[in-house]
């Protein structure tokens, strides 16, 4: 019997994979398939990167050109302060303070009364001096009257002298006429003797009148000297009166300039000595800047160069100015005790030169610009450097004052010493 053999279809054989073979299988499977998680390159990001790179290049070129054209010629310092020519108010005469006419920080004008002193004793001195002037004027008038009267006396003496001369001449003539007659017997000797006696008396009277005239004329010098003395005494009295008047006027202390009152130390009732500081008037409308630059920065500074000023009290509001003048010496030269470098060990210290800068600030900012404020000053030496770049700066000691030059020297260009940021800060 044939036994039919039934063949079953083959079934997949399931094999148990080990856990260690799973990653390898996944790796093989993933190697044959494309990566679905990888995204294509973003063109927008490339454009941003290229734009940023272009902006950086443009900014670098702009900064470099600005440094080359402007920045390397800028000299800057923060050792700068606003200043004003303040005036200390002090009395010329002493006395007790009776009234203070201004308050702290008050604005005053030229000639405005500030303080009043007790002026009673000065008023009395002025009255006395005025009375003395009146008395001396009377002395002068009396001396002038005496001199005028003396002139009349001289005129009278001269008239009497002329009369005496006429009498003497007449008497002498009579003697001459009668002498021949007496010789002939026409007249008597007694008549001739009488005429001679009369002539002698006339001559004596003439001499007396001449002596009297000379004495009277000599008195003229005495009276003239007395008049001159009286006039001199009058001048002295008038000078004393003027001084007394000035002292009386000086009891009212007035402002010698326009500005604002500061540092008021005067009080009512205190005794003020002549020259004692009472208060200070600050001309805030005439504030200027004093910037202390290093000696390595002032080589190309000249009056008239533009200045940009940044005041700490006004952040974000630059103020323009102009170099007014450069000090004739460093700050140490004008110190109370100048440094002596000729003895002991020497350490070189960079000196600073004060530079005065005139402010071109608007009126709206003048009230804020007060003396003592700290500022930063940037001086543009570009124009002068351009003019003198071809020829070294050579100046002579014989140059006139005001020419803005100093001792003879060759100034190297400051472009080689400028820092990388284009600003040299002191």
From TrEMBL:
It comes from Pandoraea anapnoica. Keywords: Coiled coil, Membrane, Transmembrane, Transmembrane helix. InterPro entries: AaeA-lik-b-barrel (IPR058634), MdtA-like_BSH (IPR058625), MFP (IPR050739). Residues 1-43, 406-426 are annotated as: Disordered. PANTHER family: MEMBRANE FUSION SUBUNIT OF EMRAB-TOLC MULTIDRUG EFFLUX PUMP, MULTIDRUG RESISTANCE EFFLUX PUMP. GO terms for biological process: transmembrane transport. The chain crosses the membrane at residues 48-69. Residues 287-376 form the p-hydroxybenzoic acid efflux pump subunit AaeA-like beta-barrel domain. Residues 87-282 form the Multidrug resistance protein MdtA-like barrel-sandwich hybrid domain. Residues 140-167, 213-247 form a coiled coil. Pfam families: Beta-barrel_AAEA, BSH_RND. SUPFAM superfamilies: HlyD-like secretion proteins. This is Multidrug ABC transporter permease. The keyword Transmembrane applies.
